[in-house]
Design a protein that fits this description.
This protein is an alpha+beta fold. It has 3 helices and 3 strands; from the N terminus they run αβααββ. It has helices at about 30-40, 60-75, 90-100; strands at about 45-50, 110-115, 125. Bound molecules: zinc ion (ZN).
Length: about 130
Amino acid sequence: MDTRLSYRALGLRPGDAHLVRNAGGIVTVDALRSLLVSKYLLGTREIMIVNHTDCGLMKATEEEIRRRIEKQAGVPASTPVTFHAFRDVAENVREQMRKLMTHSWIADTAIRGFVFDVEDGHLREIRL
Ligand SMILES: [Zn+2]
């Protein structure tokens, strides 16, 4: 979701890749839905999980985020919400890679993980 991470930052041109974006680069049920459409309906053969340094979801715990929003909204959430806060960006990438590699409809796809450094614009590959 980070605005510093764009097609251009990744060296991509329009038409090169589908970007499925969300806070934290998490393989949620909805992100998985988009990846399945990308793979099976549109022919995508490789998936990159890209997280980034200085991510907002690393700066607070799940409870702190919940408290902050509840204070601003003035009411508790009407349905359960999970923010997927994390501490270690590399480990978060590995966790998302594992989710894809163990999914029966995705497991045969090339999956690589990266951390985008918002300071210098470099991508660092993350190995399992
Ligand atoms: Zn982020």
